[in-house]
Description:
The protein is an alpha+beta fold. Helix content is 49%, strand content 22%.
Amino acid sequence: xxxxSKREERKSSPSYxxxxxxxxxxxxxxxxxxxxxxxxxxxxxxxxRTYILNDRRDMLVxxxxxxxxxxxxxxxxxxxxxxxxxxxxxxxIREIGAIRYGPNLKDxxxxxxxxxxxxxxxxxxxxxxxxxxxxxxxxxxYFMREFMRVxxxxxxxxxxxxxxxxxxxxxxxxxxxxVRGFRPWGWIIGTGVYLDxxxxxxxxxxxxxxxxxxxxxxxxxxxxxxxIRQTLSVERxxxxxxxxxxxxELRFRRLAETAPFGLTISDTEGAFEYINPRFTxxxxxxxxxxxxxxxxxxxxxxxxxxxxxVMETWMRDSRDLQVRxxxxxxxxxxxxxxxxxxxxxxxxxxxAKQKQSLTYEDITAQEEARQKLLDNQKKYKLLYKKSKxxxxxxxxxxxxxxxxxxxxDLEGNVKYVSPRFTEVFGWSEKDVLSKRIPFVPESxxxxxxxxxxxxxxGGIPCRNFETKRLTKDGDIIEVxxxxxxxxxxxxxxxxxxxxxxxxxxxxxxxxxxxQAQKMEAIGTLAGGIAHDFNNLLMGIQGNASLMLMQxxxxxxxxxxxxxxxxxxxxxxxxxxxxxGYARQGRYEIKPIxxxxxxSETADTFGRTKKEIAVxxxxxxxxxxxxxxxxxxxxxxxxxxxxxxxxxxxxxDLFMETRNVSYKEMSGKVYKVKERDYVLLSVRDTGVGMDQxxxxxxxxxxxxxxxxxxxxxxxxxxxxxIIKGHGGYIDVETKKNEGTVxxxxxxxxxxxxxxxxxxxxxxxxxxxxxxLVDDEETVATVALELxxxxxxxxxxxxxxxxxxxxxxxxxxxxxxxxxxxxLPGMDGGEIFNELxxxxxxxxxxxxxxxxxxxxxxxxxxxxxxxxIQKPYRVNTLTKAxxxxxxx
Length: 886
């Protein structure tokens, strides 16, 4: 016998396990087959036989009921008198005898009466009319008597006996019949089934069941075989799976141990069951350092706020994983054991209901690289945006350039033309794109070809090449061309950039500038001449005045001396015009209303020149201007005279004033200062002027009159006076269409005051005057005049001696008569020094120039007055008295 240990070994062996599994796999279907067979043969088939017999019995009852109903219906007809009973019975025998039913339509009915007389039988006609009450079957059963007994007892019932097979008298088999009595006629009607039919049907059913049973048996057997095979296959797979699981666990451990990322496995309570070496390598923590997640959170996230945020996120992800599964990924900053900070990507995986896995990937370097990449992306986006802005700027600069710009390829075909090119030349970009522009005149082609060759082949830029070009309409315009070769991104020559400037306006402005410079130079010369001439006139005027003061009116030279004074004043007027042109002719600046001057001048001029109709249009609320009234009168009178001379046969003269803004003066050739202005417009209906004359009308000494009939200083002085007052003057004229002079004066915010009469006194003077003048003749004459007027005079010939003398005698000196132009220190510097010595010093400026910019500045700083050389005794007396009295 085998020992127990051997039996245990056999039980644990794979072959024993397979047999055991095979037995338990085969037993259920075998038992099921046996139970199924017993159920069929012991219970199902007997119940089916009973069911078939009962079914046949029910059928026989129903069939006899049909025949009974036929007889009952015929009896009703007898009772109604429709038939006689005999007729009814004959009809019943005929109709019932014809009825057949059953599978072969051979089942039938018979009729006998209660005495045993056979009234109708389809197959035993030999018995019809005979009394068969004593007939017995093969088993000796009196079946007719049994029929009668059942009817008498119950009215109906079943009787089994032996009878011939349908229409075959030779075949006698068991039969079950149902009989029913029809009391009105005393008849018994019956029909039956052969029990062999039931047995045959049962046999057929049994055969079918046997076939089905054996089919099921075969099917179950096949299933059993398949089940056994599958069981063995599952067993093999289970063994293979167990082996694979062992290998998988081994591989997992090897992978976990060598994984490039940290790995932990924890239970639902948060306790770590496994930590791989990479985890310790990344963070420095071992499983003893962080036995559970609570400890891990405290050490990895020392900041409480950040730890709370991480824990809430982790718990939310864990709940989501339990519901939907999958992987949850997060990135957090983790504090390592050595205190360093690392960026970690966490992946949370639910691997079982009771287990959870976390991987830890150190992406610190990646995050730093990503951040650098983001920074670079921002930088490149900014650079791209900047480049697009610069591209837009360059395009905007090109398209808004005041010069025409054309870009050619190396073949000379157009790649781009700016909007300004279209404005100047007429061709649009569509007209000339990828073509040559036909705008080089024949006379310029040779020189242009040389320039192009130099630029394209030699790479030598062309600058300010002045030439001519044709417009689309065929006009020739003067242009200045600058061209250079440009390169593509590889540094190869790609084409030429050409800048074309319309210099017609430039040449016109250059001509204007030359004219202005010429007039400025002439003005400077005229001012110097006028100054020196005034000093000469001062000597003549002074000596004449001294002589007149020393002789009586009946002296033979008295009239001649007066004539000398008159001639001196005429010369002074001439120098005044020269100074006016030189913009050095303003004497006394104050706020004035130009409407008053226009009205007075128009009235005076209208009375003297009656052939001229004067029309005024003066703005009521006209702003004031700051000007020398006498000079403005001179301007207006010169313009009126000029208009009268342009209308030899008479005409209309229109004078208009109005307030204007600098915005209304746009489009002028001069640059207008942004302020308000007062416009004085003088228009005549005379002969007008051509452009050649217009270009010269403001030149000094230019005149269209005959020799001796004009000085040529009228309009020149007008121009100088207007410029000296900070204004502008325009001329609009056409030959035979009249002329318009538009004069713009800067408007003043100061209040216009009424004119006061100047003091006029020739009384003898009292006091001491310091006379400062370097011109010997002027100084001598002025000294004698002042002494003749009764003043004590101290003379200084330069600035140094003037200051020294004033310091020595400042308590005695009542007034300083100071020349503007002196060697060394000029009048302005001397005045400043005198003000330093005595804040209340009284100074009267004197100059051969008029009240120009420097003299006005000295007056603005506190100088008391100004007197123009040459001056008469009365003029000098008035000026001195006004200062001393004030």
